[in-house]
Amino acid sequence: xxxxxxxxxGLVQPGGSLRLSCAASGSIFRFYAYGWxxxxxxxxxxxxxxxTAGHSTNYTDSVKGRFTISRDNAQSTVYLQMNSLKPEDxxxxxxxxxxxxxxxxxxERGYWGQGTQVTVSS
Length: 122
What we know:
Elements: E1 3-7, E2 10-12, E3 18-25, E4 32-39, E5 46-51, E6 57-59, E7 67-72, E8 77-82, E9 91-99, E10 111-112, E11 116-120
Parallel strand pairs: 2-11
Antiparallel strand pairs: 1-3, 3-8, 4-5, 4-9, 5-6, 7-8, 9-10, 9-11
């Protein structure tokens, strides 16, 4: 059983930066693929970025060039570096994980954290 705990959210002005962290425990970190999703008020949850066990990454178009997902297997932590933040990035951000072999099936049945709020506002 994998436990995920997000941190690093907060209030930031437009154009600012935040780094989200997702600490994993309870299983072997390097065997999993990880993702960040977000959900804004009144909107459906959407995929932001993913990273496989082999460090292959994928991003939704709206964050390409601004966000970077990375993983530190030694620290059992996944990061989401968010630069040039916009008000439309405001959402609760969730960390999720699936066994790397299940990556192509998506994250819906994977492990999920409790989320961290990101608010971009002046």
